[in-house]
Amino acid sequence: MDKPVVRDAALLLFRVVLGIIFVAHGWEKLFISGTTATTGQFSAWGVPQPTLSVWIAAVAELLGGAFLVVGLLTTFVAGALALLMLAAVYFVHLDAGFFVSTNGLEFPLLIIVSLMMIVVFGSGRASIDGVLTRG
């Protein structure tokens, strides 16, 4: 299984699925729930500067997810999204238990670990980063 083609295919699949998850969450904040409702939710959770935080989170998730899908600036974006998720853990998920059904730590921890895998292993050759760094 330690063949470059298999590794690159696995990284591509991993990156695309993770990116789609982030795009969906950013899209939901901006266009489905809307920024007003999401701001109220952030405010109830005690997130500082809830309006600004909603915009930062939504745009970071939407654009960061898209960058993960295509593999552009991948390690930087994955690191930034991991920091965003750590903030989400602190403000939203820390006191909610473990399981995702109670808005607990389960999902954000999985996302953070997944993002760290991308930071460590990179985007693979099947990415814009991979194309730009071939020499």
TrEMBL record:
Recorded topology in the membrane: Multi-pass membrane protein
Domain of life: Bacteria
Localization per record: Cell membrane
Record keyword Transcription present: no
Main location as per UniProt: membrane
A Pfam family it matches: DoxX
Keywords: Cell membrane, Membrane, Transmembrane, Transmembrane helix
Annotated TM spans: 12-32, 52-73, 80-101, 107-128
Example of a GO cellular component annotation carried by this entry: plasma membrane
Family stated for the protein in its record: Belongs to the DoxX family.
PANTHER family assigned to the protein according to its UniProt record, in alphabetical order: INNER MEMBRANE PROTEIN YPHA-RELATED, OXIDOREDUCTASE CATD-RELATED
Protein's name in the database: DoxX family protein
Organism phylogeny: Bacteria, Bacillati, Actinomycetota, Actinomycetes, Mycobacteriales
